[in-house]
Specification:
Layout (H helix, E strand, L loop, with lengths): L2 H4 L4 H5 L5 E10 L2 E11 L4 E5 L6 H9 L6 E6 L7 H6 L2 E4 L11 H11 L5 H14 L15 H13 L5 E5 L7 H18 L2 E5 L3 H7 L2 E6 L2 E6 L1 H5 L4 H7 L17
Parallel strand pairs: 3-7, 3-8, 5-6, 6-7
Antiparallel strand pairs: 1-2, 1-4, 8-9
Length: 269
C-alpha cells in the first residue's frame, strides 16, 4: 500500500483528533451468566489496543459496550468523558465498527455498500459521498471492485471492503471485531499491515478484538487479555511475552498434549 495514496484524505479527517476510552468497573450479565466482571482499563488516544482471550471470555461483548451497542449491567464506558450510548456522543465523535463477518449487503454493489450509511443519514452532499467512497476504495486497492457484489469477492476482499466502508465515516475511533478470522496466513498478515498503516496515517484510535497472536504482538501498543470475563493481563506486547502467569503463557504458547487432551476439561471451565 503506497503512502502517497493513503495520505489522500479530506480536510475534515485531518482536522479530527483521536479519542480516548475509559472503562471503569464494567460488568455485564445475561440472565444468570456473568460475562464481564469488573473490567477497568484506559485506552489512550491514537494507540492500537488489542483485546485478546479464549473463546467466550467476553472480548466481543466488551467491544459492543465500547461501541455503545449494549448497556452495561453496572460500571461505565466513556469516550473522551462521554457515554457512547448517548446520541450526543455519536454526533460529537465519529466511530466506525468493522464487523467480524463484514456485514456487507449482498444485494447491492461494493460502491453502494460504502455509500449507504452516508446517503441514508444525509451526512454530506452526494459529490462528497462519491469522493469519500472512491478514496476509501483507492486506499484499500479496491477501485476495480466498485461495481462487484459481495458474493463475487474473496474472503480477503470482503474484509478490505468492510474496512473501506469504515473509512468513509472518517472515524476518530475505529473498532475491529476479529479482522483476520477465516483468512489464510498471508491475507491475515495483509489485514494486519492495513490496520497498522491506517492507524499511523489517519491518527485514529484503534481497538482490535482478535485471537491472532501475530497481529496482537506485532502492531499493538498495548494488549488486554481477558479470561472468564476478567482482565487477566494488560501490558505492552514485550511485557506480555515475559508474563509468567501460567494462564497467560498457556494462551500465548499452548502445547498439544494427546495424553491429556484439554477438551475433556472444557465443561469445567
Amino acid at each position: 500500500m503506497k503512502k502517497d495514496i493513503i495520505k489522500e484524505r479530506s480536510s475534515v479527517t485531518g482536522a479530527r483528533t483521536p479519542v480516548g476510552v475509559e472503562v471503569v468497573n464494567l460488568c455485564k450479565t445475561f440472565g444468570t451468566q456473568s460475562v464481564l466482571k469488573d473490567i477497568s482499563l484506559t485506552i489512550k488516544p491514537g494507540e492500537i489496543f488489542t483485546i485478546m482471550g479464549p473463546s467466550g471470555s467476553g472480548k466481543s461483548v466488551l467491544l459492543r459496550q465500547i461501541a455503545g451497542l449494549d448497556l452495561p449491567t453496572s460500571g461505565t464506558v466513556r469516550i473522551n468523558g462521554l457515554d457512547p450510548i448517548d446520541p450526543d456522543t455519536r454526533d460529537r465523535f465519529a466511530l466506525a465498527l468493522v464487523f467480524q463477518a463484514g456485514a456487507l449487503f449482498n444485494s447491492i454493489s461494493v460502491y453502494e455498500n460504502l455509500a449507504l450509511y452516508l446517503l441514508e443519514h444525509r451526512l454530506c452532499p452526494k459529490n462528497e459521498i462519491r469522493d469519500r467512497v472512491m478514496r476509501g476504495l483507492k486506499i484499500l486497492s479496491l477501485e476495480n471492485a466498485a461495481k462487484k457484489f459481495p458474493s463475487e469477492l474473496s474472503g480477503g476482499m470482503k474484509k478490505r471492503v468492510a474496512i473501506a466502508r469504515a473509512l468513509v465515516m472518517e472515524p476518530q475511533l475505529l473498532l475491529y471485531d476479529e479482522p483476520t478470522s477465516e483468512l489464510d496466513p498471508i491475507m491475515s498478515a495483509t489485514i494486519t499491515e492495513i490496520i497498522a498503516t491506517l492507524k499511523h496515517e489517519f491518527q485514529v484510535t484503534t481497538i482490535v478484538v482478535s485471537h491472532d497472536r501475530d497481529l496482537a504482538l506485532t502492531i499493538s501498543d498495548r494488549v488486554a487479555l481477558l479470561m472468564k470475563g476478567k482482565l487477566r493481563a494488560l501490558s505492552t506486547p514485550d511485557e506480555l511475552r515475559k508474563n509468567e502467569d501460567p494462564g497467560v503463557k498457556d494462551f500465548l504458547n499452548p502445547t498439544i498434549d494427546l495424553k491429556h487432551p484439554r477438551y475433556l476439561e472444557l465443561e469445567a471451565l
